[in-house]
Amino acid sequence: KKFAREVLALETLTGIKSESEKFAGANDTYGVEAMMQDGKSLQFGTSHNLGQNFAKVFNIQFTNKDGELEYPWQTSWGVSTRMMGAVIMSHSDDNGLVLPPKVAPIKVVIIPIYSDDNKDEVLEYSREVYNDIKEVTEDIEFDDRDFVSAGYKFNEWEKKGVPIRIEIGPRDLENNQCVIVRRDTLEKNKLPVSNVSEYVQNLLDEIQKNILKRSEELLISNTYSVDSYEEFKDIISTNRGFVHAHWCGNPDCEEGIKVDTKATTRCQTEEGKDNTGPCIYCGEHGEEWVFGISY
Ligand SMILES: [Zn+2]
């Protein structure tokens, strides 16, 4: 959860999985769930407390400090390409990828815009800006390809999710400035080149924070709490989202809800256990679980 927040800029829900959703053979399974832009939830990481179950099956033993043979307790931790999927699907927009600066392989791209009669000056000036920024980040690209147009380059780097694009043309050279475009908001700003490296460093932090804030807002605006099955069905069939509801723990109710609505239990958060109420499906005593439509 910490890694998702601080590096991937993803707000998540974490908790324990239900009996039917947990890894077969594990004592307990814990999941990390992220909210996607279409209201579906994506489980992108799980960890399992395997107990001594697999050690016994595979007859794995160790000698403890008293010289006796014992079965070890095992855990299993997994994140996979699903995690990358979560980053792509929750941050991106219609123009392509939006990568959090902390994981973007290229954080800044410089695009010199020139014609035949000012090519050398513009390239030289752009190189200086490049060298300045290189002091604050190594992950910078200088795109001086002369066989594609500037517009083509803008689109291409936008699609690849590069957090900051810097455009430098002959007029910027005259005015000692450059144009900075941030990928998360597509905002464009003119900036004096004298403080460009400091500006870029701050802007990378700001973009990282802004993407996380959007992820938090996405999760909050897609989180619901319901007391009745009617309300549950209504929300799941329209907005999807994370729906907090009471469930008695009986797999028949869980299955019934799934058949009716396609929603499954995503997890039970730590607070969910203490929040009790009647099961939305059968009315028996239940605890709060989070339901959602999963990928
Ligand atoms: Zn029930």
From TrEMBL:
<dbReference type="GO" id="GO:0006433">
    <property type="term" value="P:prolyl-tRNA aminoacylation"/>
</dbReference>
<dbReference type="GO" id="GO:0017101">
    <property type="term" value="C:aminoacyl-tRNA synthetase multienzyme complex"/>
</dbReference>
<dbReference type="InterPro" id="IPR004154">
    <property type="entry name" value="Anticodon-bd"/>
</dbReference>
<dbReference type="InterPro" id="IPR036621">
    <property type="entry name" value="Anticodon-bd_dom_sf"/>
</dbReference>
<keyword id="KW-0067">ATP-binding</keyword>
<protein>
    <recommendedName>
        <fullName>proline--tRNA ligase</fullName>
        <ecNumber>6.1.1.15</ecNumber>
    </recommendedName>
</protein>
<keyword id="KW-0030">Aminoacyl-tRNA synthetase</keyword>
<keyword id="KW-0547">Nucleotide-binding</keyword>
<dbReference type="InterPro" id="IPR006195">
    <property type="entry name" value="aa-tRNA-synth_II"/>
</dbReference>
<dbReference type="GO" id="GO:0005524">
    <property type="term" value="F:ATP binding"/>
</dbReference>
<dbReference type="InterPro" id="IPR045864">
    <property type="entry name" value="aa-tRNA-synth_II/BPL/LPL"/>
</dbReference>
<dbReference type="InterPro" id="IPR004499">
    <property type="entry name" value="Pro-tRNA-ligase_IIa_arc-type"/>
</dbReference>
<dbReference type="GO" id="GO:0004827">
    <property type="term" value="F:proline-tRNA ligase activity"/>
</dbReference>
<dbReference type="InterPro" id="IPR017449">
    <property type="entry name" value="Pro-tRNA_synth_II"/>
</dbReference>
<dbReference type="GO" id="GO:0005737">
    <property type="term" value="C:cytoplasm"/>
</dbReference>
<dbReference type="Pfam" id="PF09180">
    <property type="entry name" value="ProRS-C_1"/>
</dbReference>
<dbReference type="InterPro" id="IPR016061">
    <property type="entry name" value="Pro-tRNA_ligase_II_C"/>
</dbReference>
<feature type="domain" description="Aminoacyl-transfer RNA synthetases class-II family profile">
    <location>
        <begin position="1"/>
        <end position="100"/>
    </location>
</feature>
<dbReference type="Pfam" id="PF03129">
    <property type="entry name" value="HGTP_anticodon"/>
</dbReference>
<keyword id="KW-0648">Protein biosynthesis</keyword>
<keyword id="KW-0436">Ligase</keyword>
